[in-house]
Amino acid sequence: MSDAEMKQTPIVELINVTKRFGNVVAVNNFSLAVTAGEFMTLLGPSGCGKTTVLRLIAGFLKPDSGQILIKGKDVSRKAPYERRLGMVFQSYALFPHMKAYENIAFGLKLRKMKKEEIDKKVREALETVQLLECSERYPRELSGGQQQRIALARALVTEPDVLLFDEPLSNLDFKFRQQMRFELKAIQKKVGITAIYVTHDQTEALTMSDRIAIMNKGKIVQVGTPTEVYENPANKFVANFIGEANFIEGKLLRITETQKELKIAIGENLALDIETIDLGEKKLEENQDVSVAIRPHKLRISRKKTKRTNSVEGKIDNFAYIGSMIKYDVSLPDGTIVKVDQPLLKKIEFEIGERIYLEWDAEDCIILTE
User: Fold this and answer.
1) Cβ(58)–Cβ(198) under 8 Å?
2) 70 and 163 assigned to the same domain
3) Are 257 and 119 found together in one domain?
């Protein structure tokens, strides 16, 4: 089998997996394939089932129905130690009475490896996470970021087929979390290991993932690259969960070969050039109810109405200065509140209560039929 074929072959595959806790269906007919070397993220709100899926893959839970395959073999009923998986926990789960070296070596000692081989593998793992100088420190003597890297080294040293991450960065402060995102991704790519990562942090998912599986109520609602799920969300839930989005409700008035016209709730006409709108598999019909989603950073505020872009009158209700930009709340004539992100200028140009126009380009609109 060629390298290209190997990369396309699922190393982890869940087929129609369901898991119940009493009357609650935590994971509902769930199917997903993860290829070799891929960084796959399970993303969704609390209670959507993403951690349950990870625990099913790890073997901490058994599915009520369906199959879990690792490298083509059914492991649905196998114990965790039979699955050749590494796990990095949210709480690090380091042994406090063991030094970093001993924590990393623990799994190798259970396998009764020779000391020389253990020393070699632990050193290589410490070099991979760039913490060779910390081998004799106890967890309490390490920063949160260092503890997380030691936990990663412990997972990598046993050479697992797949590495599982259960919200590993949530205990770090904002700056360390940003740094560790890039470090984890770089280490995963360097080692070439398959990773399945659970988080509810959208920025984390967009930054680190090759693909993202977005979950809601125990099901996958969309799988795609970060660009695909952000630019072409499957429905309102995805559009609103991945970043921010404004929604304008409307009705499709007319379909021609080159143009789609929508009548939106505020009484304006929005012309969309079909050549610049990626509809994916969406099927549109005349008189169909649709939503138009527009990202806050795609909107512009102007004091004058122009003819070159779509625009609608509004009023500045509020604003917040956040350093790199100003976030405005703009109310439309029907009472709808729209979020607008504007790059920071030398001064705040628009004041609360000021009448303005919102402008946007047709290609920046996302048509949603759900």
Assistant:
1) no
2) yes
3) no
Element (H, E) at 101: helix 100-110
pTM: 0.86
Q: Are residues 75 and 148 in the same domain?
A: yes
**How far is the C-alpha of 337 from the C-alpha of 314, rounded, in Å?**
9
Element (H, E) at 220: strand 219-224
Q: What order of strands is seen across the sheet that includes strand 65-70?
A: 24-35, 10-21, 65-70, 73-74
CATH number of the CATH domain containing 179: 3.40.50.300
Q: Which domain holds residue 132?
A: 3-240
pLDDT tens across the length of the chain (370 residues): 455 555 577 999 999 999 999 999 999 999 999 999 999 999 999 999 999 999 999 999 999 999 999 999 999 999 998 999 988 887 778 889 999 999 999 988 888 888 989 999 999 989 888 888 999 999 999 988 888 889 888 888 888 999 999 988 877 777 778 878 888 888 899 889 999 999 999 999 999 999 999 999 999 999 999 999 999 898 899 998 998 999 988 888 777 766 677 777 666 666 666 655 656 666 777 888 888 899 999 999 988 887 767 888 999 999 998 888 899 999 988 888 999 998 876 566 788 999 999 888 878 888 887 6
Q: Kindly state whether residues 77 and 105 are assigned to the same domain.
A: yes
Q: Which of 240, 272, 305 is the last residue of a domain?
A: 240
